[in-house]
Write a structure and sequence with these properties.
The protein is mainly alpha-helical. Helices cover 74% and strands 0% of the residues. It contains 18 helices and no strands. The radius of gyration is 22 Å and the shape is globular. It starts with a helix and ends with a helix. The relative contact order is 0.13.
Amino acid sequence: MSALRSSSRSLRAISLSTLLLLRALEGSRVLGLLGRGVAFVEVSFSCSRLRRLILLLERLYPARVYSLVDRLNTAIPLPGASPPVLFALAYLLFLSLGSVSLLSFSLVVLFLLVFHLSFRLASGIRARRLPLERHAGRLGVALLLLSLLALCLDLYRAYTVPLLDPQARLKLSVAYTYAATFLVPGGVLIAAVIGRSFSAGRLPLQRARTYSFLLAAAVIFMISLLGYRTQSVVSLLAFAIVMHRYRIIGTAEVLLALGGVLLSVALVGYYRAAAMGSDTGIVDAVAGRAALTLMLYDYVVGTLYQKGLLLTGYYRGEVALATFSSFLDFVPGYTLGPRTIVAGSFGVTGVSLTSTLLGTVVLDLGAPGVVLFALALGAVLGATHALSWQGSTLASALFATCFAYLIVGIETGLVDFNVFVLYGSAAFLTLASVAGDE
């Protein structure tokens, strides 16, 4: 009982600390200067030719075509499945692309059950005050502009477009690339602000769709220039999730987005293989990679079981630490990334290998790590999902982007520093919201 009280006091202290930090940020000069800079950009945009072009495109809105789409949306409404159920279906679908042992499958089932329970418990969060909510639009614009600057610097460093030349990714800066990936949450946050304006009746559906589609197309195109299909897929999914949340799009567009995800993954995989001299087909580019990823995960689980390390893991936290030590020089630990460490475990050097969402976790901390990982992910996503439906555009954008990363992470894993920052921001917002409600 004393341990429970101690943990409760610790959680409350952390919540109050995050709330104080956010309130200090809201009244800080840095945010004020940032707001002035964004305001200058907004005024410049209102007088620019780009705005005139957008207004012209708005007039080209295909009203007749979209009336048919809306009828289709009414005819096939999206089932009321919760995010944990949708995630479980996506995971099981991925497992069907390969084969795993009963033990490996049991760990997946354990993860999904704990994730579902944690999500449900965290969904009970309630908050009357949502920090930084009145600054959401300007935060989105600032994040978008800063990330765009990082993208330009990254492409300048490579001196070519990695999407067209896959080998050019070796010339990219890790720091610039990580910073550029925040184009996605920045754009999704602006889309959430557009959706909130539509829901409040301040923006007609036609204009909300035009703005959201143009924004999504621009962000997806720009982030795709880096040649990482993970970012392309995440951006497409995240925009689809947040636009569906605010009823800007319906079931038909969601299904179209999922089709676009599969097509983009297949095409990028095929293009990479062709650029390296392989004659792999488009379908094999998807199925082959999924089968390899599942084989690696199954091998990790089987090897740990045979060595009696399934309850402790092999690296015992060092892989998780590598998420930070591989990017931040002052953090002790491996200078290699988690996926490269996994590759090294198979005797492969110079490349990184994916081992599904759970491969690195099992290798690092064993079965207990799977439970802790599921609890953490479920808590963050459940809380942001609840805050989203309580009116927070920040929570809507964070949930959409984090959930998109989770879906893609079924194959790639969640081991990158930028993904940790994103999930950490979601947890930070949640704790501050809870503290502000007390």
